[in-house]
Structure formats: C-alpha cells, structure tokens
Specification:
The complex is a heterodimer of chains A (277) and B (354). With 277 residues, chain A is an alpha/beta fold. Chain A is built from ten helices and ten strands. In chain A, helix 3 (117-123) runs parallel beside helix 6 (176-188). In chain B, strands 1-4 form a two-stranded antiparallel ribbon. The chains are: A alpha/beta (277), B mainly alpha (354). The structure holds adenosine-5'-triphosphate and magnesium ion.
C-alpha cells in the first residue's frame, strides 16, 4: 500500500476498521403524499467506501439529509458508533451532528460564496475553534494563535487536494470542478468520523471526474476515512466502492459488493429504460 | 517588512500573511492617516469639528449596523431604537442614579446588547423583508416607551444627560469640540479595530457563514441560533455605544433623534460605504453626514454669483442623500470601500503595474 507522511489525522473516528460505524434501521420519511424513504436499513463499515445508487428521485439525497440532520425521518433509527459506544442521531440538530463527526457535501455546491477558499476551509474547523468574544476583539494573543494553529491543518488539506493556487480566490470565481473540491476540503477540515458525499462528480467532465475519484481514494485509502457516496456514474461507483446499496422509489432493492449488485436482476430491472448501468 | 516584487507580494509565514498591513506603502498610508487625524482638530473651526464628531459617533453606529446587516445578513430597521436604548440608559444612569459616566456608557453598551438579543429573536424565524418589518416593530415599541412612559421622561420624551467627565474632571466649554474629538476618535478607532479583528477569527467567520448559507453553516457545526443572536448582541453593543456618546455629547436626549428616518439613514451609510466592510461603514457615515453641510457651504459660496442656485441647494440636501444611495445601489452596490480598493490596487504594487 502506498503511504505518505501527513502531520494530521483527517479521520476523526476511533473505531477499529471493519466494525459498523453507521447503522440505519427501518428509516421512513414522507413529504405529504410522497413516501421518499420507505423502511430502508443499511450498515456502513468503518474504513470503506459505501455507495448509495438509484434512479432519480429514489431517495438518495433524502437519506443523506436524514443522517446529517437536515431531514427528520418519521420512523427508524440511525446510530453512529464511536470507539466507546454508539449515539442515536435522529432528532439531533445538524450542528450537533457536525460535532459528533458527521461531515457532508451537497449535490449542488453549497459554499460560502462571498468568502475565499481559505475562509471556507477554515470554517470546516469551526467546531474545534474557540468562539470567545474577548480574544476575538483583541486579536493579538489567543485568537491569532488559534488562527495560525488551525491554518496548519487547513494547509495540509489544501496540499492534498491541490488547491494551493486558488487559496485566496473568492469561491464564487472558481470553475465548477474546483468548487466541488473545495466543498470536499471543507468537509475534510472537520476531521470527520464519517464523510457523506452527495454526487461529488455530478456535472463534471471526464478529467475532473478522474481527479475527484483519485482524491476520494486518497481520502479513503490513505487517510482512512469512511465515505458514504451517492453517485450516478456507475463506472466510478463500481470501481471505487467496497459496498453498494441500491434504492428505488424509496425502497432498498439491493445491497452487496459491486459485483453482486451489478448482476442483481432487480437492479437491472430498476435501471432498464432509464440510464442503463 | 514585506516588499512587493514584480510577481506580487510573497509571504513566508502564516503570521505575516495574517497581518493587515505588510508593505511599506500600506504602513506609510496608515502613518499618513494617523497624522491627518492628529492634525484635524487644529485645522478645523468648531463648526466643522462638530461635523467630524458627529461622523465619528455615526461611524461607530454604522459599524454596528454593518456587523448585523453586511456581515451576518440580518436586515434591521431598528437602528434608531437601539441608539435610543443606549442614549437613554446612559443618561438615566449618570443623571438620575449618579453613576460615573464611563461606567454608565459601559452599562449602556451591555443593556443595548441585551435589548438587541431580544429584538433579534424574530430573526430565528424570519428572513428578509419579514425580518425588516419585525425590527421596525422593535423600533416603534422603543419609541413608544420613551415617549409615553412617565417614569422615564415624565411624558416629555426627553432627558438631560450630564456632560462628559471622570473623577471631578469635566469637559470645558472652550475646548468642548476638541476634547470630544479625542474621545470620539479613540472610541471609533478602537471600535473599528476590534470589529475588524472579529471578522478575521472563527467567531466572525461563523457570522459570515450564516449570511452566505444558513444550511451549509449548520452542517459544518455552526449553531445558527447562537450566531444570529450573537451578531445582534455585538451589533447592538456598538449601536448602544454610539447612542450613549450622542447623549453626553449633545447634553439632552430626545426621542426625535432616534426615529425611523435615522434607521434608514444608517442603512444608507452602510450601503454607500459598502456592506460587509468595516472601513466602508466609516466612509459611508462620513459621506452622508458631510453631504448636507458641504451643500450648505456651497450655497453660501455661490450666494452672490448665483442667488437662484443658492436658494435651491438647501432644499436639495435631503434629496441628495436619497439620490446618492440610489446611485450607489445601481452603479457600485459594494460601496465606497470597493471604489477605494480599486484605486489602491491600481497603485498597490507600485512601481509594478498590471
Ligand atoms: N424537501 C422536500 N419536500 C418535498 N419533497 C421532497 C423533498 N426532498 C425530497 N423530496 C421528494 O422525495 C423524493 C426523493 O428525492 P431525493 O432528492 O432524495 O432523490 P434522489 O435519489 O437524491 O434523486 P436525484 O438522483 O435526482 O438527486 C422525490 O420524490 C422528491 O421529490
Ligand atoms: Mg439527490
């Protein structure tokens, strides 16, 4: 295995590899008349890339939103395992979940658009920084020390994602592929226990996709982060995932290794007539 | 010290990059600015010095409003009300309770900050226009209380505020404006520096994150409720300081100085100066408060040569403020601060040009 010396551990989970880190049981979510998620359960293993795929409107983003606290499922349980026990996630606010180690990116890029790349990444450090007013007003002393200390980790993420050249650019001026990468960077700066990525390659050209796939592999294989990946590009999913869960109309229709899922008749049927895998 | 090279400015440490001023040019400009501010009270007569003093106080208030509107994205039409809370708190504490004036001013800051948090509660549910109306509600309530609550002002709507003084020392009549100039300059400079500092730390960044994207802010761990109320508190603290200074500077506090129009004028200042810019708040306050006296001075100057124009100019004062705000909204929504940056960047890496 390739390895490279990095000063900071980006993986915020202390769980042994191979153990279930995230467990969803019987999740049910409805919007008025639409049952967006219907009794879905799955277990994500520490250290893996676990992909969630399915046709448009299958409920993939909704599931990510439930785990990150933006949606509250009416039914079911979501538990996150740490080195020393598990916590129930349903009912907690997004900012509490961030503190528990859930980081995510969005299907449509959601960056802080008036801020620079650096400021966006530093915001990934938010939960680990002191927000006391007095040092902030004074700047010299603790506030300045804190900025410099956290800058070191942020710079390492900048190196890993090759964002050096755009460090000080306002994110609103970045091309699409780079903006997606900054969003990944912001999540990485959180040193999360679990990384949820909602279509990190959507709308990218082949070259940008390859870059992103490489970064995801780096993050998973080298930094050891567990990734839940929602992605439409089947080639990428089948190439880099350890496990794949397939949703259709809010229901789980398959779950297994890429090879098992690829040959599953229900999956083939779900994709027939739409975009065939 | 960092010297600009043909390829730009290169930093060799995070600490140097975090400094606000690096190059010789930037430091020289700061030095010139300090010199000019130091010379001002010796160059201006007491009328123009009083204009400058009013600008200094307004700059503190505008920085406060910009913290809320420009940096946190929470619109407020309650500025006048918060100025009033600061002014009346300090006047009451020092005038009636005999609290030393510096203590009364500090207390006014705290009381107004608390008032801001209460007035900010609707921001947890409302956005944009709805929030604007809700803050206008706070403005009206505060105004109503001041005018009608007998215990407060005897139903008169105004109070005497004792003149500035510490430990037996008082501002003298002869040097009134000049003494106040130093007090106001000190308060405004400290206030501006402190606000600038906040927005290069995690606390200030979390406010800007809420402004740019509430949902994304919450998923990276920003407690949006706390950030919004924190911004209301910090903002109102500044506004309370401006109110308290107004009270002791003018000697009486009356509700007429803190009406809706004042709230709108302050919004105008931060729009003209630049939303989300501390320096812009100061430029905006200066610009809008200099406009009327400059127009009057112009009217006086042309009275003999063009009496017709001289008669019209005073009437134009109010319209001019509105016109300026509109022009900025259309042509440079990012305000004077942005205009100044363009000029500065042009000369910034002198002698190298791009
Ligand atoms: N906030 C919402 N309000 C109402 N309905 C919603 C909401 N969010 C999702 N839905 C509905 O839930 C269903 C699942 O949507 P979701 O966005 O989770 O699908 P998806 O699998 O992510 O699709 P895509 O591949 O297009 O991103 C859809 O029918 C959608 O219209
Ligand atoms: Mg989706």
């Amino acid at each position: 295995m390739i390895s490279r010396e990095y000063a900071f551990l980006l993986n915020g989970s202390t769980l042994a590899s191979g153990r279930p880190v995230l467990e969803l049981a019987d999740i049910g979510l409805r919007f008025g008349g639409i049952q967006a998620i219907d009794g879905v359960g799955l277990a994500v293993t520490q250290g893996t890339i676990h992909s969630i795929i399915g046709p448009n409107g299958a409920g993939k983003s909704s599931l990510i939103n439930c785990v990150s606290g933006l949606y509250r499922p009416q039914r079911g349980r979501i538990s996150l395992h740490h080195g020393d026990g598990a916590v129930e996630l349903v009912g907690r606010k997004p900012h509490e979940l961030a503190r528990l180690g859930i980081a995510r990116t969005f299907q449509n890029i959601e960056l802080f658009r008036h801020l620079s790349v650096l400021e966006n990444l530093l915001l990934g450090r938010h939960t680990r920084m002191s927000l006391s007013l007095l040092p902030a007003l004074v700047w010299f002393g603790p506030a300045r020390r804190q900025e410099i200390a956290h800058r070191a980790l942020v710079e390492e993420v900048i190196d890993r994602l090759a964002l050096q050249a755009v460090r000080h650019r306002p994110v609103s001026t970045l091309p699409y592929g780079l903006a997606k990468r900054v969003e990944l960077g912001r999540a990485l700066c959180m040193q999360p226990a679990l990384l949820l990525l909602d279509e990190p390659m959507a709308g990218m050209n082949a070259e940008e996709k390859e870059d992103m796939a490489r970064h995801l592999l780096d993050v998973n294989r080298l930094a050891g982060l567990t990734i839940v990946l929602v992605e439409h590009d089947m080639d990428v999913v089948m190439d880099i995932s350890h496990r794949v869960t397939v949703l259709d109309f809010g229901k789980r229709i398959a779950d297994g290794t890429p090879d098992e899922v690829r040959s599953d008749p229900r999956v083939i049927e779900a994709y027939l007539g739409r975009d065939v895998a | 010290m960092i010297v600009p090279l043909a390829t730009g400015i290169h930093h060799t440490s995070y600490a140097s990059e975090l400094a606000l001023r690096n190059t010789r040019g930037e430091k020289a400009r700061l030095g010139l600015g300090i010199l000019a501010l130091g010379a001002l009270p010796f160059l201006l007569d007491s009328y123009w010095l009083s204009v400058v003093n009013a600008i200094g106080i307004a700059a503190i208030g505008a920085i406060g409003l910009n913290i809320l509107v420009g940096f946190t994205g929470q619109i407020s039409l309650g500025q006048g009300g918060f100025l009033a809370v600061g002014a009346f708190t300090s006047a009451l504490l020092s005038g009636r309770a005999g609290v030393p004036i510096p203590v009364a001013i500090a207390a006014a800051v705290v009381v107004t900050a608390i008032g801001g948090v209460i007035a900010g509660l609707p921001a947890l549910r409302l956005k944009g226009l709805y929030l604007a109306i809700a803050t206008l509600g706070s403005q009206e309530i505060i105004e109503f209380v001041i005018r009608r609550w007998r215990w407060l002002t005897g139903g008169q709507g105004f109070l005497e505020a004792p003149p500035l003084g510490v430990l037996g020392w008082h501002v003298q009549r002869a040097t009134f404006e000049r003494t106040w100039y130093w007090v106001i300059l000190g308060a405004a400079a400290l206030g501006a520096a402190a606000a600038r500092n906040v927005f290069r730390t995690a606390l200030g960044r979390s406010f800007m994150a809420v402004r740019d994207h509430e949902v994304a802010a919450s998923t990276i761990g920003v407690n949006v409720t706390r950030a919004k109320l924190g911004a209301f508190a910090l903002s109102s603290g500044y506004v309370g300081l401006a109110g308290a200074l107004t009270a002791h500077y003018s000697g009486t506090v009356s509700w007429e100085r803190f009406t809706r129009e004042v709230s709108v004028l302050y919004l105008g200042m931060i729009i003209v100066g630049g939303l989300g810019s501390i320096a812009g708040s100061i430029y905006g306050a200066a610009f809008l408060l200099l406009l009327p006296p400059l127009l009057s001075a112009l009217a006086d100057a042309v009275r003999t040569t063009a009496p017709f124009l001289a008669d019209q100019l005073p009437a134009l004062q109010v319209a001019a403020v509105g016109l300026v705000i509109m022009l900025f909204l259309i042509f440079e929504p990012r305000g004077l601060d942005r205009l100044w940056r363009r000029v500065r960047d042009y000369f910034g890496s002198w002698p190298f040009r791009y």
